[in-house]
């Protein structure tokens, strides 16, 4: 097979047009057309670039005796999955779908207390003929319903466990060309990821501002309760922005790392995730319990910045203890 045929097959295998390949090699589309028509031959620098883009050796491109099928039938280590471009793409799609369900569940759980605070605010001002007992009853029912719906979204994520296991739970290696494709996808996605991550973090930071301002300049309990709803809503918006975009970026990274062996960074991340799964629900429970017990919402919000600093300290302590463990 001559070089022209190899370029055509490798390009089509990755689903690229001549324009897309030309852009990646920094040449015109006409140059790629001439290469594929065997009317010209790429210079040495372009051959090296093509080998990197297609994730093949220069020998494979230059020697006619190397056939394209050798790429697909290369020897694999026993016990290691061979991930094709299609499988990697499906993994990312399943990961995004799974995170969309998780995002809905998290948002519902965060917002589950909003009706309770709203009804309590109405009861404080005797609006809607709302009494304290009725407000508490309706609020608790709303919490139970929203949390139940949220948990149902968490349960639905089980349908994707088998589809993502090949990359997340088992050692694997990528087929030729897959690494370059996903490296390019992650590179193109990074600006959007950084922007949405910044917006989400901004939401977390400013979520306490309305409540803080009301606590300083107003002492009306109903306004404070409504500002708690605003706080929870802004946090939910931030989570809804961050979770999907983070999952997509992490999915690209999971494909690219070819995790035959779990790295120390991955283990550190998993330990932090386990701690977060216990820590933040506990902090929410403490916050709500303290706030309802004292009804000092203008003061209890301080638990959040303190809790964030404490979480960072706990992660650092956990890593320190882990390093000291033989």
UniProtKB/TrEMBL annotation:
InterPro entries: Cro/C1-type_HTH (IPR001387), Lambda_DNA-bd_dom_sf (IPR010982). It holds the Pfam family HTH_3. Keywords: DNA-binding, Membrane, Transmembrane, Transmembrane helix. Residues 7-61 form the HTH cro/C1-type domain. The keyword Oxidoreductase does not apply. The chain crosses the membrane at residues 101-122, 134-155, 195-217, 223-243, 277-296, 302-321. CDD domains: HTH_XRE (cd00093). The keyword Membrane applies. It comes from the Bacteria. This is Helix-turn-helix domain-containing protein. It comes from Shewanella electrodiphila.
């Amino acid at each position: 097979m001559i070089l022209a045929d190899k370029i055509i097959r490798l390009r089509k295998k990755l689903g690229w047009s001549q324009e897309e390949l030309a852009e990646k090699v920094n040449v015109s589309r006409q140059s790629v057309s001439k290469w594929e028509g065997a009317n010209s031959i790429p210079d040495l620098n372009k051959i090296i670039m093509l080998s990197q883009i297609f994730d093949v050796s220069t020998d494979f491109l230059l020697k006619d005796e190397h056939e394209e099928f050798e790429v697909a039938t290369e020897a694999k280590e026993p016990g290691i999955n061979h991930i094709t471009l299609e499988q990697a793409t499906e993994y990312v799609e399943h990961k995004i779908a799974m995170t969309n369900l998780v995002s809905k569940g998290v948002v519902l759980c965060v917002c589950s207390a909003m009706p309770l605070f709203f009804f309590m605010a109405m009861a404080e001002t005797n609006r809607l003929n709302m009494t304290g007992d009725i407000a508490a009853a309706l609020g608790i029912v709303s919490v139970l319903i929203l949390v139940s719906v949220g948990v149902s979204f968490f349960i639905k994520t089980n349908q994707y466990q088998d589809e993502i296991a090949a990359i997340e739970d088992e050692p694997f290696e990528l087929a030729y060309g897959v690494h370059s494709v996903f490296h390019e996808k992650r590179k193109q996605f990074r600006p959007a990821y950084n922007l949405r991550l910044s917006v989400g973090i901004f939401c977390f930071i400013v979520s306490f501002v309305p409540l803080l301002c009301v606590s300083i300049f107003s002492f009306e309990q109903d306004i404070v309760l409504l500002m708690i709803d605003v706080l929870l809503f802004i946090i939910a918006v931030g989570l809804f922005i961050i979770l999907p975009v983070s999952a997509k970026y992490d999915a690209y990274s999971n494909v690219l790392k070819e995790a035959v062996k779990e790295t120390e960074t991955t283990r550190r991340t998993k330990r932090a995730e386990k701690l977060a799964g216990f820590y933040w629900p506990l902090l929410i429970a403490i916050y709500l319990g303290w706030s309802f017990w004292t009804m000092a919402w203008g003061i209890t919000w301080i638990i959040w910045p303190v809790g964030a600093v404490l979480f960072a300290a706990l992660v650092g302590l956990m890593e320190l203890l882990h390093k000291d463990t033989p």
